[in-house]
Structure formats: C-alpha cells, structure tokens
C-alpha cells in the first residue's frame, strides 16, 4: 500500500513539473519590466503602465500588421470566438442550462482586434490583453493593454 502511495505522489509530482515546464512562467517581452510581482493585486495600475509601454512601442499611426506580427512573435494568441451553438444576445435561455452568449457585431470586431498572452498555470494564471483599432488603411488609431490575474 505504501508503494502505491509513493508511486502516486511521484507521478503527480512529474505531471505538475511537466505542466509548469509547458506553461509560460513570465510575462511576454513587451510587458517584462513593466509588470512586476508587485503589480499582481493592482491590475488597473499595471494596465496603465502596459498601455503606456504599448503606445510607446506602437504609437498612433503605426501599421497594424507590425503590432500584430510583433505580438504574435512574442507568443500572443487570438481570442477564441464563442462556440457556434451560442445564444444570440437577448434570447432567453431556460434556467439551469449552460450556454455561451454570442457576440454582437461590435464585440466580434473587437475580438478580432484583441490578442492575449497567458502565463503561470497551476494555481495562478496571469493574462495580458492587447486591443487596438485601426483605420481603413491599416493604421493604428488606438492601442491599449490590460493585465489581469486569477488564482484558484
């Protein structure tokens, strides 16, 4: 019985180690030195600092493609859309049914102009979201960042 317990704990330790190694453990390069360990509970302050860093690196008038390719190269990913069986806004859903709300056209457009980077894993996960808008020529008209973290 003791051996089974030791084997179980060893397997659990290996799984946790692999999970930690597979997850990013640091913020993306654009946020390194901007978001620090002290910022974890102060998401609004860290988000302002992140926005300033983004606007410095990608000022208004920059090319949208440069922003996207730079962030994708740092490990950012697109935000996934809701599942195809989502419920349109305003439609009633029976109580007790788990569902996903469909995005409005404006929300869908914003989702397409949002990239996310996640790091941590295990008990706590942290997120950086970058959102932007651009004109018909693909020139940035706005760029902003948001930092958030959550623990189980």
Which key phrases capture this entry?
alpha+beta; four-stranded antiparallel sheet; globular; single chain; 152 residues; 36% helix
Beta-strand residue fraction: 15-25%
Element-level helix/strand string: HHHEHEEE
Number of self-contained structural domains: 1
> Total helix count?
4
First-to-last CA distance: 31 Å
Structural shape: globular
Largest sheet, spatial ordering of strands: 1-2-3-4
The quaternary structure here is single chain
- The portion of residues assigned to helices is 25-40%
Average of per-residue pLDDT values: 85
> How is the biggest beta sheet arranged?
4 strands, antiparallel
Q: Which class do the helix and strand fractions yield?
A: alpha+beta
Q: How many runs of DSSP E, i.e. beta strands? A: 4
Please explain how this structure is put together.
There is one protein chain. This protein is of the alpha+beta class and 152 residues long. The chain has one domain. Helix content is 36%, strand content 22%. It contains 4 helices and 4 strands. A hairpin with a 5-residue loop joins strand 3 and strand 4 (140-151). Mean pLDDT is 85; it is low at 11-23.
What is the secondary structure topology, with strand pairs?
Elements: H1 2-22, H2 43-57, H3 64-73, E1 77-78, H4 105-112, E2 114-121, E3 124-134, E4 140-151
């Amino acid at each position: 019985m003791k051996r089974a317990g030791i084997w179980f704990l060893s397997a659990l330790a290996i799984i946790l180690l692999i999970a930690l190694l597979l997850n990013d453990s640091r913020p993306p390069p654009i946020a390194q030195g901007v978001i620090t360990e002290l910022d974890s509970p102060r998401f609004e302050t860290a988000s302002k600092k992140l926005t300033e860093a983004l606007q410095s690196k990608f000022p208004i008038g920059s090319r949208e493609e440069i922003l996207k390719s730079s962030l994708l190269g740092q490990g950012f990913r697109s935000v996934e859309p809701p599942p195809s069986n989502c419920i349109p806004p305003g439609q009633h859903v029976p109580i007790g049914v788990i569902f996903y709300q469909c995005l409005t056209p404006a929300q869908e457009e914003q989702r397409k102009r949002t990239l996310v980077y996640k790091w941590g894993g295990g008990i706590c996960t942290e997120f950086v979201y970058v959102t932007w808008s651009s004109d018909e020529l693909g020139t940035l008209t706005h760029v902003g960042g948001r930092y958030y973290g959550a623990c189980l």
